[in-house]
Amino acid sequence: MFNNKREREEAEVGGAGMADIAFLLLIFFLLVTTIDVDTGIGLQLPPAPEENQEPPPIKERNLLNILVNAQGMILIDEEPTPVSALKQKIKDFVTNRGQDPNLSDSPDKAIVSIKTQRQTPYKTYIDMLDEVMGAYAELRNQASQSEFGVPYEELEDDSEEQQKIQDIYPKKISIAEPSEG
């Protein structure tokens, strides 16, 4: 009589409410989670030209041609150049102010033309573009320091001071369509 143990039923969790809870958690996490989106390379495009508008004439000396070929070599005016020397060459080209007849007349006339080939290594292209942007950033920073005593990055966006520095060193970069070979 005492050894008679009644077997207990195992406890069960009701499954009906589980689907509701899972659905609510799913909605909660969808609303709360932020998803980082790769934005790509941030470049501001110039306004589209009118249909019958001819491109303005450009003196050859005001055009710095950069080619990144399929082997990943960077050529400035058909001369091989390492990535490390690119920034200084661009700064020399832009700040020439007519002294060297092989370089630009002035910063506002200097144009950096970039061309690639379809098989150009992406990393080399990005490294080259970083050097180009870095050269302009350094020039603008130096001008801001001398004009206003503060780095260019600390100037307020769309302020008169920032516009003045952009007028001194306008970023004129032409990126051509990649060629096949």
Write up what this structure looks like.
By secondary structure, the chain is α/β, with parallel strands linked by helices. It has a domain at 60-175. It is 36% helix and 11% strand. The chain has 4 helices and 5 strands; from the N terminus they run H-E-E-E-H-E-H-H-E. It has helices at 16-32, 83-94, 122-148, 160-168; strands at 63-68, 74-76, 79-80, 111-116, 173-175. A 5-stranded mixed beta sheet has the order 3-2-1-4-5, with helices on one face. Strand 2 and strand 3 form a beta hairpin. Helix 3 (122-148) crosses helix 4 (160-168). The radius of gyration is 30 Å and the shape is elongated. The protein starts with 15 loop residues before the first helix and ends in a 6-residue tail after the last strand.
